[in-house]
Design brief:
Helix 8 packs across helix 10 (about 325-335) and helix 11 crosses helix 14. With about 550 residues, the chain is of the alpha+beta class. Strands 4, 5, 6, 7, 10, 11, 12, 13, 14 and 15 form a ten-stranded mixed β-sheet that branches. Strands 19-22-23-27-26-25-24 form a seven-stranded mixed β-sheet. The chain has 16 helices and 27 strands.
């Protein structure tokens, strides 16, 4: 989880709460905070990017303490316009922007802004690939802006912290920011560029600002801020968070018109989102008996506005609330877990019986350990870059906060290889197994969950024969009648892989990993893997 450090002097500009109380109230809010001599260090959960800003943190504490927050019903237009040109769409298609007038960046304000900019783009923005933020001196900008793309050798400007002009290609190869973030741009002979009406380059998103207009100082009062990225929702949400942050400092925030080939929109927005909920559901999941008429008062501590008894209006800086399950989490924070009392008489006991498939999985795990395999566990959500190696379709989560955990696994083998790669320096051989659920598409296109057993071996002698021995030993121990057929897959070496068939249906596979996959994980020695769908084997066999 990301950690941010807020200067106490700046926090005192935003809240009257005593620093010692801030530490405790952060804990009550569900955050881990440590009070230093002149700073407050806060560990923020990944789903709350708004709390990465000092303004967002103090906003949450102030509202939690019952202070009334006043924001305008809508933002006034700035008169600024950003025209998005078609040539930038394949590179980095989405942009949002806002204008800030009367900003106060003195006494730590600029440092806090830069920290938020870096933290949110490094974490929530996946190292600037998903989103990047550009901040500019509005007084140096002429007229409307264009967001387009230009050839790498023709785009030239003086980048931030430099004195000489450089081409985009030179920036990507020589400038510190270029070398660090070049991976965020698709391979192309062009680079994104933001220019004003006079042709002045503001930045090359998401790499670097230009010197001059892109260099903001503590004395700068008027700002132009852009957010660029690859997902429209994430880009707009980040602009909304920035708008709320500056409003809480007393600055004036104005909207910018975004003109694209698909149409025109205005950013940012303060219009709350409506999320339906059931008071009965909230009370049941929380074990409370809060009257419908009182829910609004409790949820107001989290800046949630209850309309009637079935809709909550969520502020635009809260990007983490999608359904009433999330509202229940906020209700717990608002009530305080210490206020919930156990009711022993309400506890009911039910006798159940073991799930047959679960019993099979226990047996599979026991057999794997008898084969001297070491048990490991990986997550159901994993990195799509790993899954792409196995050429199997997978479910991609929407608005994921981390790419590392943004896709559901259709195979255990990816996680097993990742674990082997993280333990390359361990003594060989490394023989591991895992039992767990996977999600695959069936013939009808629906997602089906299965319980599987997978194994992997990293050893100089690992081969198709090794994998076959593990698989056949497991199948015979389970008493499953099977047949083997040739398996042709890009992640196995051709001719060194097989499919397990039960009554003519494929239920598993094993083989020796292809050198290209070995190279991806930097394996120094051969690897063999295999996988058995225990759900299918139980139903068929």
């Amino acid at each position: 989880m990301p950690t941010v450090t807020f200067p106490l002097a700046y926090l005192q500009r935003l809240t009257a709460t005593d620093p010692q109380q801030l530490e405790q109230q952060a804990f009550d809010y569900g955050l881990d905070a440590t009070l230093g001599h002149q700073t407050l260090e806060v560990e923020v959960t990944a789903e709350r990017p708004d709390l990465l800003a000092a303004e967002g943190f103090t906003r949450a504490i102030n509202i939690y303490n019952g202070l009334v927050r006043t924001v305008p019903d809508q933002l006034m237009p700035s008169g600024c316009r950003v025209v998005v040109l078609p040539e930038v769409l394949p590179l980095r298609p989405h942009i949002a922007a806002l204008v800030v007038r009367g900003a106060d960046l003195q006494d730590g304000g600029l440092e806090v802004l830069v920290q938020f900019q870096e933290k949110v783009t490094q974490t929530f923005g996946r190292q600037r690939k998903k989103i990047a933020i550009g901040v500019y001196d509005l007084d140096q900008i002429s007229g409307n802006l264009t967001y387009g793309a230009e050839p790498l050798d023709e785009l030239s400007f003086v980048p931030l912290h430099s004195t000489q002009p450089m081409t985009a290609r030179q920036i990507l190869h020589s400038h510190p920011a270029g070398k660090l973030y070049a991976h965020t741009l698709k391979a192309s002979h062009q680079a994104p560029v933001l220019r004003d009406a006079a042709g002045t380059v503001l930045s090359m998103p998401p790499i670097v600002n230009s010197a001059g207009v892109g260099e903001v100082k503590a004395s700068t009062r008027n700002l132009f801020i852009d957010v660029t990225g690859i997902l429209p929702q994430t880009v707009v949400e980040t602009a909304n968070i920035l708008a709320h942050n500056f409003l809480d400092t007393g600055a004036e925030v104005q909207t910018v018109e975004i003109v694209t080939p698909q149409g025109t929109s205005t950013t940012p927005s303060l219009v709350r989102r409506a999320v339906p909920f059931s008071a009965k559901y909230l009370n049941e999941i929380m074990g409370t008996a809060i009257p419908k008429s009182s829910l609004g008062k409790v949820l107001s501590r989290m800046d949630l506005d209850v309309s009637g008894t079935d809709v909550v209006h969520v502020p635009t800086y809260r990007t983490d609330i999608f359904s009433q399950v999330d509202i229940a989490g906020d209700l717990l924070v608002a009530l305080g877990i210490a206020s919930l009392q156990a009711e022993p008489l309400a506890v009911k006991f039910h006798l159940g019986e073991a799930d047959p498939l679960r019993q099979v999985m226990f047996k599979v795990g026991d057999l794997a350990q008898r084969m001297q395999l070491t048990e490991v566990k990986s997550y159901v959500l994993t990195d799509p870059d790993i899954l792409d190696l196995f050429a199997a379709p997978y479910v991609q989560t929407g608005n994921a906060k981390s790419r590392t955990y943004s896709a559901t696994r259709p195979t255990l083998q990816g996680g097993l290889l990742d674990i082997l790669a993280r333990n390359i320096s361990a003594p060989k051989p490394i023989n591991i197994y895992e039992t767990g659920e996977i999600l695959r598409f069936n013939a009808a296109g629906a997602v089906r969950e299965s319980q599987c057993w997978g194994f992997a071996s990293l050893d100089a002698r690992a081969s198709f024969t090794t994998a076959k021995a593990y698989m056949q030993t497991m199948l015979k121990a389970l008493g499953v009648r099977y047949a083997l057929a040739v398996r042709d897959a890009p992640y196995y070496i051709a001719g060194r892989a097989a499919t397990v068939l039960v009554e003519g249906q494929p239920v598993g596979e094993f083989g020796e990993i292809h050198p290209q996959v070995l190279e991806h994980f930097s394996f120094p020695e051969p690897v063999c893997t295999g996988e058995l769908d225990c759900s299918a084997s139980l139903m068929i066999g």
